[in-house]
Amino acid sequence: MLSLLDLPALKALWKERRWGQPSWQAFEKAYFEKLACSYEELEAVPSQIVEALRKDVAFFPLEVSQEFLAADGTLKILFETQDGLKFETVLMRYSAEGKADRFTVCVSSQIGCPARCAFCSTGTMKWSRNLRAEEIVAQVVYFNRRLKTQGASGARVNNIVFMGMGEPLLNYVEVKQALNLLLDQRKFNLGPRQISVSTVGIVPGIEQLLADQLPTNLAVSLHAPNDELRSRLIPINGSYPLATLFASLDRWTEQTGKAVFYQYVMLRGINDQPEHIQQLADWLKARPARLNLIPYNPGPALQDLDPTEREQIFDFAQRLRAHGLHVLIRHTFGQDIAAACGQLLVR
Length: 347
Ligand code: SAH
Fold this sequence. Notes:
two-stranded antiparallel sheet, ten-stranded mixed sheet, elongated, alpha/beta
């Protein structure tokens, strides 16, 4: 069933029925700015249009199946699609003294993930399908409404990371459409620096981002500094080895003028050894790069992997900084509700 978030189809319907531009603008304002939660709240749209829509168009493409609240305030929602599939999305709240709160949504782009990285729970679930653009932006609309109804005065989602379930660059067409909506000032009012697309390193997808000049941040899940190890952890490295990946990232940096963010999950005894420090420095020191070290979050379906000790992560970071690299240790949110990096999983 068509939903109000399938904007190309909805626009076509509007045109066909000659409902006109002012009523379209009233709809956009009520839905995206005022965050209407039901047809009753679309009073600004002429009532005969609302009645016509109500018959054939779903107000929202997703249902909430379950929710989980972590001790640190992280909220994970299990959504259900119209065709009965389930996936998860996470809202993180980051508060720092003297600054406005940051609300980050970790959006999913696929149900399951074909990349099947060795350390990631999502890769162990059944692969179902790509999410549609409307289902991607619906995740953001949902949390905006939630912030509004919880009375967080004027609070909005102000940061989006494509770091939920799935590999966004293997669902390029829908992700691109979603990005364009998120960047549309009349809908989400987000700037390019508030959105990060994270990829395991799908080179044709990076080239597409370049060709389309989508100005968001780019994050790359690096996780290993040599092809032998990376291919063991991330099977698609066989198709896009490090030299090919970095050549593409260099073009991206040249065109955008921006640094690339890199994720590196710290796996004890596997990718946290002294030789890895040197190899990482060799790849990154001459490039504009921000490296995020991520403590490994264990998952029930994952075996034979352990997190690097806290102390050793600090030491690893220090040694990388001594090579002149920009290194941060990523804070872990929502581990108690399996909402942290790599823990999203639906059975
Ligand atoms: N497929 C995209 C988007 C997912 S982002 C990508 O790989 O970039 C999710 C991030 O969490 C990725 O960097 C992923 O490698 C990382 N991750 C996966 N499993 C993890 C785990 N068990 N612990 C910590 N980080 C993990």
